[in-house]
Amino acid sequence: MQDRRSPRIGLILSLNSGSSSLKISLYRLSSAQPPVEDHQLNPVSLIITSSISSISSTPAFSFSVVDTSLVSSTVRDVNNEPASDVHDHSTAFAHFLNYLEKETGVDRQRITQACHRIVHGGDYYKPEILTEESYHYIERLSDLAPLHNGTALSVIEACITHLPRANSIAYFDTTFHRAIPAHIASCAIDQEVANKKGLKKYGFHGLSYGYILRAVSRYLEKNPSETNLIVMHLGSGASVCAIQNGQSLDTSMGLTPVSGLPGATRSGALDATLIFHYTHRAGRISHDKSLATPVGVTEAENILNTKSGWSAMTGTTDFGVVTSQRSTDSKSALAFDLFVDRILDYVGAYYVKLGARVDALVFSGGIGECGAELREAVVERCACIGFVLDRAKNNSVDGVEGKVVEIGVKEKGEKRVLVCRTDEQLEMARQCALNPEFWE
């Protein structure tokens, strides 16, 4: 594992591992000169974006060139083409690298920094160049984030094999939440045990929240350190975050991502004893081979992480299908209404915690960015605290360019309602470009 500074002509690769997907973005530095920290500036430019989906079932590969300046030939865009040589996250990464060199002529040796999104960082509160010590620490944390940390580690191993000259750098979703006050992060259990075992609220989706904070504060023409937001990152994994003066005050996920809002396959917060009534096998180690993770998890963790959420309620992980069927299917209606209700629980609580000083209510993530009906259902119920939806704007978000889109009634005295198209890969690349520790 490397730990070296690189010349500022190197390329940055951002890797985002999901439970059955891998998103990849390749960037170049916007300037050979060391950039200055400025939330208004973007120190990197996107060259290529790629993804491999359905890795554990029928892998599909997508690849698109955004900037042709470094590409030696014309490359056609690939959209969800079958990838028969992909069997896991490691072979998915190898497939991308082979396609990159073969079709674009971009030498993989030009990649000097590989940024890895790690869901659970435990006590790490800044990006870490991966060493044997940090790798094994993240490996131990896989018990707390079995859907993601395990797959990210397999991509890290592949990266070290195929890009031996590049730094592999871990970026943690938990870092953004390091400012959460102790009385909010702590659990009402024996504190000696809690401190010894690290049992507290960590929070997740931090890379997304960091990106959203900068994008929205720029849109509002405010300094991030003076910005207060309630942000909803709504996707197959969903959470809410209260941001006060540019820092995380509270967030819905806790020790693990299973807490808080329900997701596609996650239960969200529930009575801690429910699982023992749900199954008498709760404490046993699961042998479910579909978990695609090298760590052992209990039946309880397996059920709450992979066999719950709106998938368990409706039979589909696609919330768009849940939304479209809710008028004719009682199961879908229940799942939709339950999700809205749980979101409102956190929006209301965070509005009070922020002392009613909220610059904007922000929707993000796949569902938050695309789900007009969900946004309407949430904002309509927030009218009592001053948020008013413009239905025409809400229904036309897809046709509006830009990272931030206004969907609220923008009148004097009305609070802002926004959609922000988040970009975790860009956030990692941006942080990498700005960190002098990684460059000559």
UniProtKB/TrEMBL annotation:
Site residues (Transition state stabilizer), renumbered to this chain: H205, R266
Positions annotated as active site in the UniProt record: D173
UniProt keyword Kinase present: yes
Pathway: Metabolic intermediate biosynthesis; acetyl-CoA biosynthesis; acetyl-CoA from acetate: step 1/2
Residues that bind substrate: R117
Enzyme class: transferase
Cofactors: Mg(2+)
Protein family (similarity comment): Belongs to the acetokinase family.
UniProt-recorded name of the protein: Probable acetate kinase
